[in-house]
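Lay summary. Proteins are chains of building blocks that fold into shapes, and those shapes determine what they do. In this project we predict the shape from the chain. Here is one chain we studied, written as its sequence of building blocks.
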Amino acid sequence: LWRFGYSARLLKTNHFRTAASNTSFPALWMVLAQYSGRIPGLSVVVKKNSFSTMPETVEDKANLELYSPHPEVRGMTLLNREAFKRTVVVPVLKVKKEIVNSLLKSLKHMVLQRPGLKRVVEDPEDEDGRLVILDPHKIPEFSLGESEREVLKQLNVCPEVSKYNLELTYENFKSEEILRAVLPEGQEVTSGFSRVGHIAHLNLRDHQLPYRHLIGQVIIDKNPGVTCVVNKTNIIDSTYRNFQMEVLAGESKLVTKVKENNIAYELDFSKVYWNPRLSTEHGRIIELLKPGDVLFDVFAGIGPFAIPAAKKKCHVFANDLNPESYNWLLHNCRLNKVDNKIKAFNMDGRDFLLGPVREELSKELPLLKEEQKTSFHIVMNLPALAIEFLGVFRHLLVGEPCSTAGLPTVHCYGFSKHDNPTKDIQERAEASLGTSLDGRCSTYLVRNVAPNKEMLCISFQIPADVLYKRPCPGEGKEQA
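And here is the predicted shape, written in a compact code that computers can read:
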């Protein structure tokens, strides 16, 4: 998950609230100082008289708004980058250049630490001097404490704190800061987006929609490599697992390339399902497979389970009902040179289980010997509906059961809004199978989809009395 302008750690909205105003910036500055965010390319404008000595006890009340964009940008819907330009005042110490390093070490806790800003700049009135920029939140009254004064005394530095004019431009603000200044005060700003190749995918709230094109452009500006921003305009269709979207900013090219777990995929994001938040889960399932195992992927999409399994030398049968997904699956099989290792199908999931899966299991399971270590895995990643498909396994095969070790393992995904999602998904799976799974299944929490909505994976070997329909006693004799 990406946040506007934050690709590493996420900053929650309430970190930026202060008692005075949602746009007050000292709290924001102090929070950002703890994180590794950058303000690239901050420009410093120095004029002949750009700093002046201040009385040690004078409090600069303007400090509260120092690092927020210009207040006139509030309500902007068409991005005007020039409107964000603002000159602010920060505290500095005048020192000789030869003692700068010593001063930085001694006053490390007082010196401006925000990445992207120069902590030391030239003194326009002294070519041998430098200006060391201090953190305005460490000296809110532009006055140093006794311990800092003692350090300066030992270094023979004047303890007077001076003003310094710092020009901030649009380039110097993060996405979060820009959007908080633009959107109506008090309304939620942060909105996560998924990165799919060059595409940023948003799920905007209603109050953000009037600003959607500005939001899209800001994301492009602040996230290198993003050239297209889209917003989902309806829920995911359960049949083909795609959704309608609106291009908010940038190019309208929706065919993109992604890389997941060192495997490259290509897709049309407007026509197939792809979720970058599932990369860890894809990798987890692949780790369970051994070379020579058989994988049946019932809802394969463009191949995030099937292709890495084939690369691991598994025998793969992959299916998807969406014709676009099926075509991109074939394309990605060729792209990754596993097209001769995957048998691909374009049919309904039930028909796939009742046809190719039943046929392959009927052929292979009777041939398994006790010493053979081949495992059969069935992946069913359609969390909105997959549990309803489990009933297909009831008496899918006819005959005497194979050894317990050879029984196929199912990995079935589902959503749950229950207070106990693990119990909920197990009970629903048991209802479809017609048997208890107590002691015979494991449940894994994949991710939190929304407040009070979890995505889980339940894994189990299909019980023999569910999978097999045994011939009735004497049935063979009557036929004879």
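What the prediction tells us: DSSP finds twelve helices and 19 strands in the chain.
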